Structures are given as C-alpha cells and as structure tokens.
Batch of 2 targets.
Target 1
Amino acid sequence: MQSTPGRIGALKALVFLAALYPFGRLAASAVWFPELLGANPAEYITRSLGDWCLRLLLITLAVTPLRRITGWNWLLRLRRMLGLFAFFYAVVHFASYIAFDHVFDVVEILKDVVKRPFITVGFTALLLIVPLAATSTNAMVRRLGARNWRALHRLVYPIAILGVLHFWWMVKRDVTEPAIYAALLAALLGHRVFHAWRDARSGRAAASPRTSAAAAARDGG
Amino acid sequence: MDRENIVLIKRPNDCLPSEITPEPIYRRRRALLQAAAAGAILGAARAAHAEGGGLPKLPNLARSRFSTPEKPTEYKHVTRYNNFYEFGTDKTDPYQFAGRLKTRPWTVVVEGECARPRTFGIEELLKLPLEERVYRLRCVEAWSMVVPWVGFELNALLKQVEPNGNARFVEFITALQPDTMPGVRLPVLEWPYVEGLRIDEAMHPLTILAVGLYGEVLPNQNGAPVRLVVPWKYGFKSGKSIVRIRLVGKQPLTAWEKAAPHEYGFYSNVNPDVDHPRWSQKRERRIPEFFARRETVIFNGYGDQVARLYAGMDLKKFF
C-alpha cells in the first residue's frame, strides 16, 4: 500500500470516527433511547466503555507487531491517535463509574480504591496512562528527548496488564472474556519479547551494540 | 393585633348553619373517595398486569398483605435481565436461550427427614390456592427490582410431608438439562445448582414457591415452572426451576459457597453493613434507573418480619 499524505489524512479521519463511534452510540442512546441499552443501562455503559478502553489498548499495542509483519510503516502514523482514544475511554469509563455507581460519593470511591483489588489495579492503570496522554504531543517528545520519551511510554505494557487484570478480577465467575483479552495481550507482548531476544542475539553475533540499539530505536514501543 | 383578633372571632359567624354538611353525608363522601382511590390503585395494578408477556393467565389470585405497594419493575426488564447461569452468564442469555427448557412433564420431589415424602406434579402445584406477592428483589450485584410473583407459601408444601425433628435445613436442587442448557458446558458453577435454607427460614410465611409472574405462568428465564423466592436474601438464594426439595439435618453446601466461600455465605441476607469483598452493598440501583442512589435496607426491608430469626447472631460472621 502506498502512503501519500492525503491518504493518511483520510485514513486518520476514518479511524477517528470509528474509534469515536462506540462512545457516540452510548451517549446518544443514554440521552434519547436508554431502552436500547437494556434493563441496566448504566452497567451497560460502564462495561462497554471499559471494553473499548481495553480493545483500543490492544489495537495500539498491535501496531508495532503488525508493522513488523506486514512492512506497513504507515500504521505507525495511527498509533498516537489510537493510544489517545484508549486514554479517552479509560477516562469516560471511570467517569461513568463515579457518576452511576457512586453518584459522586468521594468517600465510597476512595474506599473502593483501597479495599477492592480490582478497583485498585484499574485505578492504578488510569493514573499511569495520564502521563502518556500528557506527553503525546510532538513538542513533548522533543522536550523529553526521544530516549526518555520512549522509556516513559513503555508504561503502556504494565498499563495493559493491569487493565486486563482489572477485568479478570471484576467478573463474578465466568472468566472466558478476560481470558481472551489476556491471550491477545500475551501474544502482543510475546512478540516484542521474541524480537528483543532475536535482536539481542543477532546483535551479539554481529558484535555491534550499535546495531541492536538502532533496531530498538527503529522498533521502539 | 386587635383587629386580627376581631377578625378571628368573627369568622365562625361567616359560615351559615345551613352550609355545614351533615355527618352522614360527609361520611358517605369519604367512603366514595376512598373507593375511587382504591379503584385507581386496582386499575393501575391491572394495567401493570396487562403488560405481561402473553403467557397463560393464572386465575383467581388472592392479594397478599405481604405485597409492597412499590411500583413493579416493567415486565420486559424482569424477563430480560436475569442471572440463570445454566443458560449463560450474560444477563440477556436466559431471555435468549431459556426457551428450550423443557418444563413438562415436571415433578418436584419432597423427601428426606419427614413422615410422608412424596412427589408433586406441576399440575398439582398450580391447583394450590395461589396469591400474588409483590416483593422487592435485591441482587448481590447491587441492583434491585420489584417483582409481582404468583405462588404459595413453601410451608404449605412442607407441612404436607410432615417434617420430623431431624429436619433442621432444607436443600433445594434445581433442574439440570444438559441438552437444553448451553451454560452447563462450562464449569462456571457445580451443576446442578443447589441452594439451602434453615428450616425456620423455609417455613417463614414470606418464603414462597413462585409459579407465576405478572398474573401469568412463569417465563422460562425466570425459573419456570416453579422457583423459590426468599425476598430478604440476595437473589441467588432463590433457586430457579426446582426439581427436588430435601429436608436434611446438616447445613447444605450451596453452589455459590462451593464456588467462592469467602464471597457468598450460606445466609446471604441482604445487609448494607456487610460488603461483598469486591463491591459495597450500601446502595443499590433500581432497574432501569441510571444512578445507584437507593440506600439498601437490612433484610431488604423485611426486618419487621424476619429479624427475629437471627436474634443474637453475628451477621458479619454468618454472612
């Protein structure tokens, strides 16, 4: 596939609308047709927002492996937006929990955060993703320097792990769904481990530390 | 000040004796108004029934003094938002898949520590005097509904088999139909689903076997053809599609106790002061409201009737 600026722009617009669609559907239903969201619309909204947060995290993490496998470097141009959407869904997921489950009762929310492991890990993931969103601009990349920026953004790995754990510990009994997310995440992280290991080995074979550093920089994230 | 007093003193004179309504007439008027109000309430109740699911009607329902005057949750919500894990763990799975459940022929075996164990056909149970019981239902997941059940007191059935002195607990065993229940392929819980009550809880007049909903026979997803309803306990205590009731001496081990003993106790009385390990039980969301702003009440508001059953018990220990 050829990447021209026009095509990338159109693709970005398309991805933007697609990623915003689940939120738009939920918001519109909540306001005009809560019936569409079933008997417990608030639960439906909170869970859907959480689902989309996890999905977008996994999609963001799929960019690098997909790029390696297909050679489609233009995929990288979508990664920031996908990551920011994961952040967006994390925030609205949390907001929905604050409003619908606790009706803004701060004491109850804090009790949840310290007492309930699944909330603790979910809340930790939310805190960790904030600096990533805050440093997502080109200006911040320049200010931090590419190396620091990349190191900071490796936080996305623990964030994704905590997110899946949050889901796993939340379900009452049937862990099928969280297990699917866990398997996908394991594959995406496993791919990186495998590449790091292969690069390290080929780097050693070439006896050139620069090669592996360059490879790491090229594949970064 | 003085002028006001004068006015006050003068006022009674403004009312002519001929304008005063004689007592018999105003009493009759009051009776008429009360009748009209009662009619409006009955009308509302009938309207609520009118929106049932088009299933066969259950005739001659007596109204119960145990019914709550709260507005019943809409039929579509009561029948499309269920936990019936035999058909899947999603709340909408039972509505989608329970249609296949075979509810005829159906028998309920009542056995164990009793003088006259016997088997009841479902037709026989449907012929018992039925009444409507509008109960609050509080799920352990912190949502609640108001459900107009139709049924009879469980004690009416248990008395027929004459429990003996060893009968200290009652075990409820529910249907296991692997060919109609897609959910039992996964070992989510141990099947069949088993629940239990203490004998005094089982004999309590609030504990009923329900055979209907909204004046009609029970839809499959709500536990057709006969289910337990214990309104002061979390919903999972009220086993669906009951096939066997055993009077026993030892406290039964229930399905949820086996699955997660630290999260689900034998008693599982609704209690805002005992949190589920993973969420607070202080408040609840009344389906289909958005905000979980209702304060949960101990024993789901049935404390006047049942609190004495637990006198002297540490409800935090026996949760």
Target 2
Amino acid sequence: MKFQIPIGPQHPALKEPIGLRITVEGEIIRDADLRLGYNHRGLEKLAEQKTWIQNIYLAERICGICSHSHTTCYVQGVEKLMELEPPKRGLYIRTLVAELERVHSHLLWLGVAGHEAGFDSFFMYTWRDREIVMDILETITGNRVHYGINTIGGVRRDLDEMQVKHILDSLEILRKRSEYYRNLGTTEPSFVARLAGVGYLSPEDAVALCAVGPTLRASGIARDVRKDDPYAVYEEVPFEVCTADTCDVLGRAVVRIKELFQSYNIIEYLLKNLPAGPIAVRAPRRAKPNEVVSRYEAPRGENIHYIKSNGTDKPERLKVRAPTLANYAATIKMLKNGFIADVPLIFAAIDPCICCAERAVSVVDARSGEEKIIPMNTLKQLSQKISYGKEKKRVAEWPL
Amino acid sequence: MATVNTLIYLIIYPGLLFLFLYSTFVEWYDRKLYARFQNRMGPTHTGKFGLLQPIADFFKLMAKEDIVPERADRKMFSALPAFGLAIVFTAMLLIPVWNYSLDRPSVISFSGDIIVVLYLLSLPTFIFFLAGWSSTNLFSIVGGARVLTMLFGYEVPLFLAVLSPAVLANSWRLAEIAAFYRQHPALIPVNLLGFVIALICVQAKLERTPFDIPHAETEIVGGTFTEYSGKKLAIFRLMMDAEMVVAAGLLATVFLGGFPGGPLLGLINFIVKTLFVIFFLALIRATTSRIRVDQVVTFSWKYLAPLAVLQLLITILVKGLIS
C-alpha cells in the first residue's frame, strides 16, 4: 500500500519550515518531493534599498549559524568592487572568526545528528562543549551569534595578548572533548548502526547533482573553496581537505569531525603567526559600476554571492546562493529507497539552513493542489476580492 | 473484615493510590537519572528536588483541552486509555508485594500467575497499536504498525528469559519462585544472562530508547499518541509509568528474590529492588541511540532469542545437577 506522508512544514525533526512529501510503501520511501517557500523573507530585494555598509548587517542576518560566512562572502565581493586591499592583520582575524564559526557549526551539527538519531546524551554533551566556542567568539567580537566583526576593508575589533592566550587555552579543552566525540560517534554500536549505509550518494551523483561541502566531501571528492580558490589568508595556512569514502551519513559525520581538528590547527596557526599592523582600511562610500562573484567555504559548503554595482552607494543586485540550496537535489536522491526512520537523519546530514535558501513563494490551492506563481499585486487583489462585502470579524478585545 | 481488606488492597496498597504515587516517583527518578547522565539538572522546582513534577505534569495534562479527531472511532479512541490503565493496575495486583506468607503474598496469587502477568503486560502493546490505528492519523498508523513489528521481536526472548528462573524453581507461581530464590541465594547468579535479556526486552516493551521507535519524535511526531491530548494523554502517560513499575517489580520478583519481610520491610525491599532495576533501564536509555524497527527484529532474533535459549539450557543443566 502506497501512501504519502507529509514531513513538514511543521514537524519536530525540522527546526525551520519546509515541506517534504514522502511517498512510502510500508516503511520504505519510494518517492520524495521538496516544497520550498514557507520562510521567504525578501532579503535580496531589501539589499537593493540599503547602502554598502548597511548591507553587511543585513547579510549577517541571512543565517544565524553561518552569519560570518555570509558577511565575509559579501564583504569580499564589495572589496573587489571597490578595489580595496584589507591589511594582513584584519584578514587574519577575519579567518580566525571564520574557523571558530566552523567549529561551532560542526559541534552544533554533531548534536543535531545525535538528536535526530534519538541519542540525546550525545546532543547534550556536544552542545555543552559548543558553549566554549561561543564564549571565545563572545570575547573576540562581543556577540555570540551575529558577530558584526566584518567591515568593508577589514575588521572592526582587534585582538590583544590576553584574548590570544584565552583562546589557546580553551582550544586545548576543545581538542580533548572532540577526541572523545570522535571515539564515541564512530564506535557506539547503536549510533553507528543508525548512520552507516544510510543516505548513499555515489561520487558521480554527488558531482552531477552539484552537492557541496561535507556532503560532497563524504562522497570522496576533495573539493573545498579554501583550497581550490583561496580567499583571505588560506593560501598561507597549512591544512588538509578532509574526505571520507563511505558516501553515507556516517561519512558526513566523520568529515565534520575531521574538519574540527583541521580548524583547531588553523586557529592555532593564525594566533601564533598573527602579524602586527592596522586591522582595516578606509572604504569609499560608492563603488564603480561593475559586477563580481564571491565564493566562500561556509561550514555547510560553498557559499556564492553575486553583487552588481551601478556607481551609487547601494548595490543594484545582490544574489545569494546558500550551500543548502545546492544540496537539495542530492537530498532527494539520497532519500529514495531509504526508510522513513532515516528521513530526519538524511535531511539533517546536509545541515540544512532552510531560510537561507528561500528565494520565492508559490501559491498552492489547498483543495486542488494546483500551483501558480502570481505577482504581489494580483495576490492583493485576490484577497480583496475574497473578503469584499463580507462581514468583518469581531476585533479581539483586551480582557482587562 | 475480608471485604475491607480487599478494598484496602485494591484502593490503597498495592492498588490505585500506592501505584499512582509510586509510579510518579519512579518517573521522577527516571527523569532525574537520565538528566544527570546527560549533565543536566532534571526537575528541580516543583516540590523538594522536583519530586512533585510528574504529579504536576499529570494534573496539567488533565486540565488541557481534550480533542478527538473527527474521523476517529470516538468510543474506541476514548475507551483505550482507561482499558490500558486498568490492565496495568490489574497486573500490579499479582506482584507479591503484600508479603506476609506464602498463603497470602498478594491480593490474588495462584499457580500460573506468572503467565497471567506476562499476558497482562503484553496487552498494553495492543492497546498502543489500537490507539494508533483508531486515531486515523498517518503518523499514528505508522507508529501502530511499528508497535506490532517490534512485538514480534522482543516478546519471545522476554518470555523465555522470565520463564527460565521459574523452570529452575519448579513453580509457575510468582510468590513461590521468589521464596525459592530466598532459600537458595546461590542460585540467583545462574539467571544473570536471563536478567540482562529481560532488562533489554522490558526496555523495548516500555518503548524507551533505543526502542522508542513507535513514538520516535523526529520521525513520526508523536507516533501512536499523535492525536491524543488532555486527559487521555495523561492517562496514557500514567499507564506507561505504572507499566514500568510492574515490569520492574516482575523482574525483581523473578530474578532478585522478591520482597520478603512483612508489610514495612517488604515495602522497603520492593522500593530498593525496583529502583535498582529502573537504574539500569535509565542507564540503557542514556547511553544508546534509537535503532530502526528492522534492526530491532534482527537484533532480537539474532542475539536475544538464542541467548535466551542458552539461558534455558543452563537452567535445565543446573536443575539436573542440584536434584
């Protein structure tokens, strides 16, 4: 017997709204369909009305987890447009925050994977230790989530000796804890039984469906923007691109744990080789008419910003391609022929950030299921037509 | 006088009131242990050490809006929680807690009551299945199907594991089995393997991690209980807690020598031994992740069932040696 199970838009496995229509036969998934558009915020349109500087803080709010990724990607693009050369120390601090963000994102993901697999103890422990990174980020930038450290031409806050020492000390604790999670995550029998062999994505499919980030690297393809197209100071920093060859959710977990250790090494290198000098240069208010594409390796994968300027102090177009969007096609492929029980794990394994990837709203007729794309004006007219002449609902009264 | 006694048995101890209070305490104990294993605090605010939290939860749920789905079978949907609670509370009456002598170990005691307890502990599984099925919700139906699929896995090993001490004690009566192991404490370790198997199976029966598959939150929302709310959900939760007490009581009777020493000492024995069993249940819950339903069946038939047969074999050999 085939029937459809709606996972989302509201479902405990999803932290943000997205619609997954899953056709199952017993417990086995035969088909999957993804519906977007529940969380569209119109950020790209908003960016066209704000100045270059204001847009940094807008870009930061595209995502809560990889807020630094989006600002860095945007700021790098704008710096190219304005032909600015940020000073070395500024770039080092920018990279440092980027790697700390990767650590906190990967620790967060490990916890989420544990929770989706019903291993809540793992979730509680990883999230407890994630607090250490959050504290480091707070000491550097003053904030836990939206760091606000990037500016066009450098960064906004400098590091002092005390902070460097504090970060290096905390890093030791994190290393030890991550070692423990590596052992636990790859040896706990019931956890491994849930992850191994689930959500298979062959290397050919991963490339053909344009998967990015740990999802791609877990299929054995060493592709990382930090190595392939180095930005900031990644050319000078020694690190390896981590891969796994199991092509499943376990591989994706292993890649992320390996990347944690690479990030610790990068952070240590950056702090020990921090050059002296200014942290930012002055940026002009306007950019010459031009266009630019900026790439950045976010914790979830390759992040792309396309920016077009028209000589004013505002961008003409800002287009964001978040890594989650690139992984959706691969997710559908991974879901097919899996079990219902694996849906949250497979979906969580791409580390989805749903509102980052929302670009449009489609209007669906609830009764017939017919989909159409209609402009805002038509939508307004439609709502006026429906409610025209109808009695107004009583306005709720304040009880006191 | 006999009527008054029976009423006391049924309503106060070890019946309704005691079981209600004790199962809320057990829920607190389980939650607190689980939280401490996870480096959390657990309930702290309601009552001393948060002891009243499960009772507060129960009454809060009782006061919540109670919704019956439009397409559900209204009568069945509403009757199931009450039936389930009745079944579990009946099972409790068979556990030999009121332990003066072999003549009157519990409210009712007869040869073969171990089978009745096991049977009464199987029924809640069907209640869960029917609850899921009668909700007419996709998630509930999937949950209900999972309940039954799991039943085929753990039921046989559980029966084999629980019955092998009975074989050694040469009795099908709970009180006599417990009395036998009190007289021969050296024979308790013989059933160690069976105890471990029974612990795992009870964990599956109670639908706790790694076997919380029928109501796996991240997969099928509330599973069998998706459509249940308010009073009915409160009763189901109480039923699960009471089932944990009964199952722990059964294991303590069969494997740990029962609860000797009259009303007071017997009560202390009962509490210590059931908490000992529940400690292991909480430990398993904290250290594993949820497995898939097909993995439960494979695991049960590949490992648990053969080991249970091995336990039976050991028991028969030991019985041959001592007689």
